[in-house]
Amino acid sequence: DQQVKQNSPSLSVQEGRISILNCDYTNSMFDYFLWYKKYPAEGPTFLISISSIKDKNEDGRFTVFLNKSAKHLSLHIVPSQPGDSAVYFCAARVELRNAGKSTFGDGTTLTVKP
Amino acid sequence: NAGVTQTPKFQVLKTGQSMTLQCAQDMNHNSMYWYRQDPGMGLRLIYYSASEGTTDKGEVPNGYNVSRLNKREFSLRLESAAPSQTSVYFCASSETARRGTGELFFGEGSRLTVL
Fold first, then answer.
1. CA–CA separation, B4 and B46 (whole Å)
2. Chain B residues lying within 8 Å of A100, measured CB to CB
3. I need a surface site. Which of A39, A104, B45, B76 has the fewest CB within 10 A?
């Protein structure tokens, strides 16, 4: 049973428009939610996170929204740029033995067209 | 800044052979992790180490062993490689969970093919 789901394998948007990437989860014990960005042949890099006690976190062009009642979070990128084209992974973290054990979704490939 | 370094970057094995993937981090992080990523899928946790001297199983530990050699190094061993272990392996490290979000810092990955 997949605890973190990204139901859209791909998303294509025009440069300058908004990109919205979605993620659903099932485990209420997750304490942080994180988004990672991955380019081909590289490791994922951290983008933005949100605590389970918050409903919004903003960092420049990136905003993450958390809806706990729906067990849903989304990443908004405004405005989208061609360099944002990458695979985006949603991850949910639970603290276990003082380590942050993260569960990942399958990723959404974002393509931003010039 | 090296961050997280993995070796080797590429490896081809025959079924039944053994090998060890090495990982080292220079960020003084307490926690280290090994993930695998298969095509079209997310990262799945194989093993993790909350701190030096401790290791625990993740979601997909079968066929693997790990060693937390010291605070910097965390190795992953395949004792008898199988084609199902063909994947890209990522090592990661993080601060102790209680100190923040626990964001993961990843290495560049090791692409392993088992024939």
1. 17
2. 31, 94, 97, 101-102, 104
3. A39
For residue B43, list chain A residues with Cβ-Cβ distance below 8 A.
44, 89, 104
Cα separation, B115 vs B107, in Å, equals 25
Preceding amide of A79 cis, omega within 30: yes
Asked if the Cβ–Cβ distance from A100 to B104 is below 8 Å, we say: yes
Can you give B56-104 as a three-state secondary structure string?
EECCCCCCEEEEECCCCEEEEEECCCCHHHCEEEEEEEECCHHHCCCCC
Per residue in B9-43, pLDDT (tens digit) is 999 999 999 999 999 999 999 999 999 999 888 89
Q: C-alpha distances in angstroms, B111 versus A13, A42, B6, B47, B102? A: 31, 11, 11, 18, 25
Answer yes or no: do B108 and A43 touch at CB < 8 A: yes
